[in-house]
Amino acid sequence: MTRCIAFQGELGAYSHQACHDTYPDMEAIPCRTFEDAIATVRSGKADLAMLPVENSTFGRVADIHHLLPESGLHIISEAFVRVHINLLALPGVKLDQITHAMSHTVLLGQCRDFLAENDIHRVTGADTAGSARHIAELQDPTQAALASELAGELYGLEVLAHHIEDQGNNTTRFLVMSPETDYSRRGDHGMITSFVFQVRNIPAALYKAMGGFATNGINMTKLESYMVNGSFTATQFYADIDGHPEDPAVQRALEELEFFTSRMEILGVYPADFQRG
């Protein structure tokens, strides 16, 4: 029986690319929203979910940190996908025929130099894969899409120009979510522990909570805050640290953290991706 992985977006989206690159033998299931992707896994229709959490150019993905603690799923892996943007058009079309290019507004903004050089006007689409599908259906040789090569393959478009993005390091980090936990030590680049916590309403609580990681020599690679249920007084933090909860130093740091928090929940323990750098 074929295993399945759910993602948010249409076939050919960069989230689909992440599924394709990381789990080439799994069937990718497109979902309308992040919540739908999570629900698809919880219902048993998919084995895993591939969720984007942050982009090197645009920061964290909106709302995703709110969804992770309530998802009922656990992080078992991470994946990094280099966002290569390509100009896609109908078969046989030449670059000098293109007058307009459609894509998500973010991608359009990342290809300003190329579009200006070739006098191509920008057209805002709902998303990247949807824009590729629309161009394929439109059958207008003057119209193109900015999307992944995978989208071109799926919708019968040809790549007129490869990797036209202005910045050469645009990368999206994804988390792979599973209904089951996996705390086994694996991988060749160390382990990552991700967790959320709320500090107690006492002076210098966050400072004191972080002290345990400093005194135990634990590297915290990410710490982000966000409001809970629209409250200005209840702030939740998302954190990534190097190490495994069973490491003595990590164990001591987490025990000290719990003393200053009203809630602490481990979201996942997983191998660091080799592209983490």
Automatic annotation (TrEMBL):
<feature type="domain" description="ACT">
    <location>
        <begin position="194"/>
        <end position="271"/>
    </location>
</feature>
<keyword id="KW-0584">Phenylalanine biosynthesis</keyword>
<keyword id="KW-0057">Aromatic amino acid biosynthesis</keyword>
<dbReference type="GO" id="GO:0004664">
    <property type="term" value="F:prephenate dehydratase activity"/>
</dbReference>
<dbReference type="InterPro" id="IPR002912">
    <property type="entry name" value="ACT_dom"/>
</dbReference>
<dbReference type="InterPro" id="IPR018528">
    <property type="entry name" value="Preph_deHydtase_CS"/>
</dbReference>
<dbReference type="GO" id="GO:0009094">
    <property type="term" value="P:L-phenylalanine biosynthetic process"/>
</dbReference>
<dbReference type="GO" id="GO:0005737">
    <property type="term" value="C:cytoplasm"/>
</dbReference>
<keyword id="KW-0028">Amino-acid biosynthesis</keyword>
<keyword id="KW-0456">Lyase</keyword>
<feature type="domain" description="Prephenate dehydratase">
    <location>
        <begin position="4"/>
        <end position="179"/>
    </location>
</feature>
<dbReference type="InterPro" id="IPR001086">
    <property type="entry name" value="Preph_deHydtase"/>
</dbReference>
<dbReference type="InterPro" id="IPR045865">
    <property type="entry name" value="ACT-like_dom_sf"/>
</dbReference>
<protein>
    <recommendedName>
        <fullName>prephenate dehydratase</fullName>
        <ecNumber>4.2.1.51</ecNumber>
    </recommendedName>
</protein>
<comment type="pathway">
    <text>Amino-acid biosynthesis; L-phenylalanine biosynthesis; phenylpyruvate from prephenate: step 1/1.</text>
</comment>
<dbReference type="Pfam" id="PF00800">
    <property type="entry name" value="PDT"/>
</dbReference>
